[in-house]
Amino acid sequence: MERLQRPFFPIIYVRGYAMTREEIVETTSTPYMGFEAGSTKVRQAQDGSIVKFVFESPLVRLMKDYDYRDVYEAGTERSGRLSPRCIVIHRYYDPADPAFGNGKAPSIIAAATSLGNRILELRDSICGSNAALRKAFRVHLVAHSMGGLICRCLLQNPDVATAETRAMVDKLFTYATPHNGIDVAGINVPQLLSVNDMDNFNRSVMGKYLKVPKDKVNTLGNSGFPPERLFCLIGTNSRDYAAAHGLSSFAVGPLSDGLVRIANAYVEGAPRAFVNRSHSGHFGIVNSEEGYQNMVRFLFGDTCASAQLQITALALPPEVEAARKRGKNVESAYYIEATVAPRGAYTYELTARTQANQCAIRRQHSEMFNADGSLRRDAHAPVLFSVFLDSRKILAGSEIVFSIDLAVCNAGYRIDGALFLKHHIPGEYLFRNTLVLFAKPDGDGGWQLRYVWSDENWAGGSKHAAIPVAAGTRAIGIRQPDADVFSIPVQSDKGFTAELKIALAAWQ
């Protein structure tokens, strides 16, 4: 009997929404329901050109890289003993195919109930009657789009599964899930639109099956499931979503993956990453290297790194500052960009929050500073990212190495309500540089962190030691209670200063 080895638990894939009967039949006619779909195209963010790059699919890569296997044999699913490193497809749409069932699509609650039963069946097939194995048994859930809502229904609705079943879920990874519903032309999908079960994405309906108020559907409520064990991968490419001949992308608009708006694609308190991928299709988020790399690091990695930027000084251009001193009312906003990639990455980034991808962090000057330019006591420092890393993937040396492309630029100035255009320089950054971080455990349960700004220095040269934040404290807004937190000064000759807090914690 193969033993369970954390973190390589069985993986259950839960596919997304199929709208029409034809889409349902197409879905049920395939054994892996999209998890086997790969891609050969990568859109380059710089100029829009397409280059050939083969991504075999999450299914194939899990088999090749981590020795996972499917559960099919002799034309059907195996019913006997299964390997703990197995991949199971939750085929909840089978009853909706007249060839397999009554032709009626299951509700979210019904799909979540059958998912809970599937977990129990999987435990029996892997563990048998071995009490120790049954106690240690866990599963990873990986879900696309509506599949993430089915998984959350299992975790949040006590009428769907027992507490024992819910406790068997170790982690949940979601691709492009509408955790806060779907908005079309700025309006939430109506509750009355029950045709093809589209009301599944209405917040009032979601509140009922997720057991939370309709204005808090992107929370885990009283489920008890830790939000840090739910990862939200968010797509930012709306232009390449081809569903409904491009009408969906047009109706939903930019700041989306073509179907799910960026603002609706995460759970409060959960780690999230932003990738320039569309909801599905040839440039889809599931069949992407970015999606795969985030998934395996979240499921199998051993390190979590988060960052938060506390801006302490933000100088205005001389002409704008002069106007402020004359008593003029000055308004301004800023974009904060952060792109993170591990050492060795060439064709992907773990997260990219940029203006070009329409997902940069935006902050008003008044949110951070008082009218006289002094720092507000209640200024909110944005969390730039939470990414997961794996020391087993270290290609050179003994340290985990990753880079952060960090930039801050102005989104425009207004003086007494009028746009300040005369001296405006498009693309003028207050700060822009690439930070390379070198992290490793210190042997006493903590971490060491060194860094270098690589725009001026070679990454392999001398490095600075990051400053540890006082013991017992942690970065505000970063859900890593056991993390070591470090501070790195950030500044430019334009009068920009900030404190970058990096939190490092053992994962799993």
Q: Can you walk through the features of this model?
A:
The model is unreliable at 472-476 (pLDDT under 50). The two termini are 24 Å apart. With 508 residues, the chain is of the alpha+beta class. Helix 3 crosses helix 5. The chain has helices spanning 21-28, 58-66, 108-127, 131-136, 146-156, 163-166, 203-210, 247-252, 289-300, 318-325, 365-368, and strands at 11-14, 39-43, 50-55, 69-70, 72-73, 76-77, 86-89, 139-144, 169-175, 183-184, 187-188, 230-235, 272-275, 303-313, 330-342, 351-353, 361-364, 383-389, 400-415, 418-419, 429-441, 447-453, 464-465, 467-468, 484-491, 497-506. It contains eleven helices and 26 strands. The strands form six sheets. Strands 15, 16, 17, 19, 20, 21, 22 and 23 form an eight-stranded antiparallel beta sheet that branches. Strands 4-7-1-8-9-12-13 form a seven-stranded parallel beta sheet, with helices on both faces. The protein has a five-stranded antiparallel beta sheet with strand order 18-14-26-25-24.
Essential attributes:
single chain; about 500 residues; alpha+beta; seven-stranded parallel β-sheet; 11 helices; about 30% strand; globular
Structure, briefly:
The protein is α+β, with helices and mostly antiparallel strands and 508 residues long. It has 11 helices and 26 strands.
- Our Rg estimate from Cα atoms comes to 24 Å
Number of strands: 26
Beta fraction of the residues?
A: 25-35%
User: What level of helicity do the residues show?
Assistant: 10-25%
What is the residue-averaged pLDDT? 90
- Structural class, judged by helices and strands? alpha+beta
Largest sheet: 8 strands, antiparallel
Q: How many helices does DSSP assign?
A: 11
Distance between the termini: 24 Å
